[in-house]
Structure formats: structure tokens, C-alpha cells
Design goal:
This protein is of the alpha/beta class. 39% of the residues lie in helices and 17% in strands. The protein is built from 11 helices and 13 strands. The protein has a 7-stranded parallel β-sheet, with helices on both faces. Strands 7-10 form a two-stranded parallel sheet.
Length: 349
């Protein structure tokens, strides 16, 4: 029997890529999304890319905070597992609007877990983040590192991880995998789906792509005096398709293995400086990216990259793509979709 997977936030950047990989991997998928920070067009394009598998995909517009609507969804359909992406994710906004983040991310998740439990669906893959490591004292970050979060967004991920651990301890039927992502970048090689942040991008790659297509005048690089090879911060960038495949590996583990609540880093295990990433993107796009150097931002860590040994060993997964492929696919998406899923007229930047 074909497994039926609920993907919350499946119209978002990582959600849409994972939904496509699920369909191609022979799963049935129901996407639930409130479309607050995503586009239905992403799901239409996933259907096109899924070709003969597209009939195995449906989308329902629901906000997880609407518990009755979530309840209704579960009473209509039997799910074998849930991949939970839905949530707000802008660090700066979370500092300005902490209650919005706690309300959306945590209440939505508690509702989801309650309804899952009620309907006997107790397999979950949760989209966590390397932000739960705070400012790591050493690298690479292993899954056993002490946890702390430097902002409300990071705290919502940390709190939800703790909620998942508590739920599993209270009921041994639950099987939960927490995936801590490092820095997802790139796009599907077709250029049909990719990252399309609303407003001002928070991350390096979408910002750089908007400079390359002429939507922004320059890239600001924060911090040029770090103790790194070129003075700029080091991060572990991971191709979004590799990340999506990591979710398939996690699902397979949930269905086959006897586990409680496990956590895995998804990264490449390699650090790349901001300026190295800029150079790789310039090479891929053939565009010069004007740079303005600025002071460090408060709260930015100097060097963060993953230890990926546990995921390689236990999920049989490892990242395949390097920064050249990440930049190639990012530029392919950006050049075909300079305004993402929208048009110049309705972009709120």
C-alpha cells in the first residue's frame, strides 16, 4: 500500500522540494498550508514536475492554529506519518514580534500533535534548525551539543523539540525524528521551484540573487573581522534537494526502525565563508555582485558547520551537492523567475 504523508507548510521553500521528492519516491502527499508566506503556484509547479505522480498530491488551505480544521482533515484521511515544516522563520521579525512567533509556531504544533495522537498517527519528522545550537563554542556541531537559542524564532524550534521529547516519553507509540538544518540554499535543477521570500530576504543567497537580477543595488556583508580565512562568517550551506532527500531517509527510518525521539543534523559538514559563496555565485551567474562591508550583526555566530556522521551512519544519507551546484541551481531559478512566484507589481519589497 502506498503510504500517505501529511506535509505541513508544504508550499514553502523546503516543503515544496520535499513534497516533490516524496511524490517521485512513490508516496501520496497531502499538503496543508495557510499560504501566509508561500505560494499556491509552488504546488502547481510541483505537480507539473511530478508528471505521472501528480495525481498523488492534494493541497488543503488550513492554518494549524485552527484546531477544528486540522481535526476535520484527520477525520477525512488516514495519514501514515507527518512531516512538519509549517512555521514562521524570520529571525529579525521574531525579535520584534515574539508573541506572533510563539502563537504561530508553538500553538500550531501543539494542535497538530494533539490531533495526531487522537487519530493514532504517531510518526513525525520535525523541521528543526541549527539555531538550537546558539553560538557553538566549537565546530563541527554534533547532535549532543548543549542547546540554547539566541532569538525567539530559535527558541520556538528549541521548545518544540522539547515538547516532542516529552510527548514521546509519555507515550512509547510515538516515533519522532528531529532534523536540524544548517543553511538550505539552491533550487530544483529545473528552475521551476525555488526560494521566494516575502519582503526583504533574511538569508545570504536569496538576497544575492535579488541583487543579481537587479531588484536590489548591493549585498551588505556583515562582519569582516571574524577569525576566518577572509574575515567573513562561515556557514554550512546545503542544497535544498539534498535536504529534501534527508526527509525521505528520515521517513524510511520511521517506518522501518524501532526508535523513540532521535535527532539528526542535515548539512554538508563543510564550512564556507560569505565571500567564498559570493565568488561561487558570481561564477555561476556571470554577474558582478556589488558588496558593501558592514559591522558585525549582534547575535551572529562566527563559524557554524555540522557534524553529519550520525545521519550518514543511521539514515544512510549524505549531501551530494557542493557550492558550485547550489549556486548554479539558485541562478537558474532566479534568472527564470526574477520575481519568484509573483510579478514585479505585487512584490512587497
Amino acid at each position: 500500500m502506498m503510504k500517505n504523508i501529511l506535509v505541513t507548510g508544504g508550499a514553502g521553500y523546503i516543503g515544496s522540494h520535499t513534497t516533490l521528492q516524496l511524490l517521485l519516491g512513490g508516496f501520496k502527499v497531502v499538503v496543508v498550508d495557510n499560504l501566509d508566506n508561500s505560494s499556491e503556484l509552488a504546488i502547481q509547479r510541483v505537480k507539473e514536475l511530478a508528471a505521472e505522480f501528480s495525481s498523488n498530491l492534494s493541497i488543503v488551505k488550513v492554518d494549524l492554529r485552527d484546531k477544528l480544521a486540522v481535526e476535520k482533515l484527520f477525520s477525512w484521511t488516514k495519514f501514515d506519518a507527518v512531516i512538519h515544516f509549517a512555521g514562521l522563520k524570520a529571525v529579525g521579525e521574531s525579535v520584534q514580534k515574539p508573541l506572533l512567533y510563539y502563537n504561530n509556531n508553538i500553538i500550531g504544533t501543539v494542535n497538530l500533535l494533539e490531533v495526531m495522537s487522537l487519530h493514532g498517527c504517531k510518526r513525525l519528522v520535525f523541521s528543526s534548525s541549527a539555531t538550537v545550537y546558539g553560538w557553538p563554542k566549537e565546530v563541527p556541531c554534533t547532535e549532543e551539543f548543549p542547546l540554547s537559542a539566541a532569538n525567539p524564532y530559535g527558541r520556538t524550534k528549541l521548545f518544540i523539540e522539547e515538547i516532542c521529547r516529552d510527548v514521546q516519553r509519555s507515550d512509547a507509540e510515538w516515533k519522532i525524528i528531529l532534523l536540524r538544518y544548517f543553511n538550505p540554499v539552491g533550487a530544483h535543477p529545473s528552475g521551476h521551484i525555488g526560494e521566494d521570500p516575502r519582503g526583504i530576504p533574511n538569508n545570504l543567497m536569496p538576497f544575492m540573487q535579488q541583487v543579481a537580477v537587479g531588484r536590489r543595488p548591493h549585498l551588505t556583508v556583515y562582519g569582516t573581522d571574524y577569525n576566518t580565512k577572509d574575515g567573513t562568517g562561515v556557514r554550512d550551506y546545503i542544497h535544498v534537494v539534498d535536504l529534501a532527500d534527508g526527509h525521505i531517509a528520515a521517513l524510511n527510518k520511521l517506518f522501518k526502525a524501532n526508535l523513540a525521539c532521535e535527532v539528526y543534523n542535515l548539512g554538508t559538514g563543510k564550512g564556507t565563508t560569505v565571500l567564498e559563496m559570493v565568488a561561487a555565485f558570481e561564477k555561476a551567474s556571470g554577474k558582478k555582485i556589488p558588496i558593501v562591508m558592514a559591522e558585525r550583526r549582534p547575535g551572529d555566530a562566527e563559524i557554524v558547520y555540522a557534524s553529519t556522521e550520525k545521519a550518514e551512519r543511521e539514515l544512510n544519507w549524505r549531501a551530494k551537492y557542493g557550492i558550485d551546484e547550489m549556486c548554479r541551481d539558485q541562478w537558474n531559478w532566479a534568472s527564470k523567475n526574477p520575481y519568484g512566484y509573483g510579478s514585479p507589481d505585487n512584490k512587497d519589497d
